[in-house]
Amino acid sequence: MNTEKKVITRMAPSPTGKFHIGGVRTALFNYLFAKHHNGTFIIRSEDTDKERSKPEYEENMLDTLEWLGMKHDAFYRQSERTEIYQEHIKKLIDSSNAYEAEASKDNPDMPVIRFKNPNKIVKFTDLILGDIEFDTTELGDFVIARNIETPIYHLTVVVDDGLMEISHILRGQEHINNTPRQILILEALGFERPEYAHIPLIMSPRGGKLSKRDPEVIPAYEYKDQGILPEALVNFLAFIGWNPGDEREIMSMDELIADFDISKVQKSGGAFNIDKMHWINKQYLNEFSDTEFAEYIAPLFTELKSTPIYDESVMQKIIPIIRERTNYLIDVQDMITDGELDYYFAQPEIDTEKIIWKKDVKEGTIRHLEEAHELISNFNGEFTADLVKESLWIYAEEVGKGNLLWPLRYALSGRDKSPDPFTLLATLGKKTSLERITFALSELNK
RNA sequence: GGUUCCAUCGUCUAACGGUUAGGACGCCAGGUUCUCAUCCUGGAAAUCGGAGUUCGAUUCUCCGUGGAAUCACCA
Length: 446
Description:
Helices cover about 45% and strands about 10% of the residues. By secondary structure, it is of the alpha/beta class.
C-alpha cells in the first residue's frame, strides 16, 4: 500500500446503545492496523442523531476500549462540529452539487437538502474484497441533510474523514453499500480518496446477524464482569476473520500489532464461538500465579468470608482445585451456587446409599472405611496428598481401588463428583478427615 | 425482489495450480488414582453442485445453488 503516507484510522461509532462485540472488533482492526504502521487511531463519536444518542453510551464505549487496551490518539464528537458541516453543505450548494428540495417527510413546510447525483459508475478497490463496482444511478438524488444545520450521516462521515485525513477506512461490511455515495460526496468536495477495507461481520453462532437475542452475546463491557480477561477478548476477536498465517492461537496485543496484515483478513463473516473464547480465557488464566488467581476470584467469596465457617488456610489450599475447573468467573460462580465448595468448609451430609461403591456392599464399605481410618490415624509425617496416598495405596490395590477410594472420597466430600480422596485428605487435614470418616461410619451403622 | 458481497470439517481457519487437504475450539475413545476436572495420546469430521481452462484444480473462468449485508429525512 501507500507507505509514504501517514496512516490514520478511525473508529466512528454512534452512541445509541451499549458498545457491542462487533464494534470492539472493528475498533480492534483499526487499532491494530494503525499501530502496525506506526499510525494514528482516532475515535469519533457520531452522535448527530439527537434522539437516540446518549452520553452514557459514549462513556460505555470509551470504558470498553480503555479496558481492552486500545488507546486513541484523538477524540472527536460530531455534535460539536455542526458549523463545519454547515460550511460544507453550503459549499456543495454553491457548487451546484446539492440543492434544497421540495419537502421534508415529517414537516411539509421544511425543505431537505439533496445531493445532485452525477449518476455514474463508481469503482473502488477494497483492501479485503478487491475491486468493486456500483452504478450509483439507482441512488437518485439522496438526502445529505434535513436542513442546513442538521446534516445526515453520509455527509458528516465524508467531511470528517476528509478533514481528519483518514488514510484507511476500516469498517464493517454492512457499510459497503454506503461507500459509493460517500465517494460521490467526497469527489464533489474535493477530498482525497482514502483506502477502504470492509471487515467481515461477526455472525450469530446460529448464522445470520449478531443479535441481542443471542444469549451469549452481551454488551462488550459486561464480559469484564464475567471474568473474561481483556487480553483474552482481544485475542479472541482478532482471530475472527484474521490469523497470523502460522499455527499460533494465543497472541498478545503487541504480537497482534506486530503481525497484523489487512491482506490476510477473511472475506466472509465468522461466527461468534463462545466456547473458543472461554478456552482462550483459560489459556490466559493459566499464566496467573496462585496469588493472582486468588485475587481474580476473590469478589465471589466476600459473602462466604463473612461467615464463621470460612477458613483462610482452607481457601488457600483449594485455589488450585478451583483453578483447574475454571475457564472464566462464571464457572466459579456456578461452583459456589451448586455447593461444590461447601464441603471444604463444613461437614457434608452423607447419603448412606451413595457412599456404597457400585461394585460393593454396605459391609465392605464399612470395613474399608474403618481400615482407612486406622491407616490415616497411624500416619506420621507430612500430611500431603502424595505421602498419604502411599500409606493407603497398598490396601486400595488389595481390595480393589474403587472399593476404598469411592467411599473414602464420598465420606470426605459427600458428593458424587469431587477431586480425588488424597487431595481431599491433604486439603482437609488429618483431624477433620478422621472426623468425617467417623461421621460417615456412624451414619452407616445407624 | 433490486443492488453488493461471500462459499474448505459443526465452528474459527491453513494449504506458489501438484499435500495422505494441516491446525485450533467443540465432540468421541483410551490413559494418568474410584468420580469430576486438568493433562497426555488417539479418533470421527470439510473443499456446495455442474461445466470449462490445464498433464493436473480447494486454488483460475462461467453457470447454477446456498448464505450474508443493504435498500431511511438512523448511523
